[in-house]
Amino acid sequence: MQEQLEERLTLLEAEVDRLKRKIEPNLADLPWWEKIAGTFVENSAYDEAMKLGHEYRESDRTTAVDAIDE
């Protein structure tokens, strides 16, 4: 009986592994940007960094335009 249980458990574990591979994407096959997608969801520090970066780029753009106009 013990051997039958061990054999059944081995078969079940193999089937679970097979099913997992079927439904879960293999991260090695994904492009880098899909691997990190969603990493910063609901992250206020990230949102603040993006806001400050945008403000900086806008200020730099204004300075460049002013220099051209002179």
Task: Spell out the key features of this protein.
single chain; mainly alpha; 2 domains; about 70 residues; about 75% helix
Radius of gyration: 26 Å
SSE string = HHH
- Give the strand content: under 5%
| Percentage of residues in helical conformation | over 70%
State the distance separating the first and last CA atoms: 91 Å
Counting structural domains, the number is: 2
Number of strands: 0
Low-confidence stretches: none
Number of helices: 3
Rough shape?
A: rod-shaped
* Main sheet makeup: none
Round the mean pLDDT to the nearest integer and report it.
87
- Class by alpha and beta content: mainly alpha
Structural description of this entry:
With 70 residues, this protein is mainly alpha-helical. The model has no long low-confidence stretch (mean pLDDT 87). It contains 3 helices and no strands. It starts with a helix and ends with a helix. It has helices at 2-23, 32-36, 44-69. The chain has 2 domains: 1-26; 38-70.
Describe the structure concisely.
Helices cover 76% and strands 0% of the residues. With 70 residues, it is an all-alpha fold. It folds into two domains: 1-26; 38-70.
List the helices and strands and how they pair.
Elements: H1 2-23, H2 32-36, H3 44-69
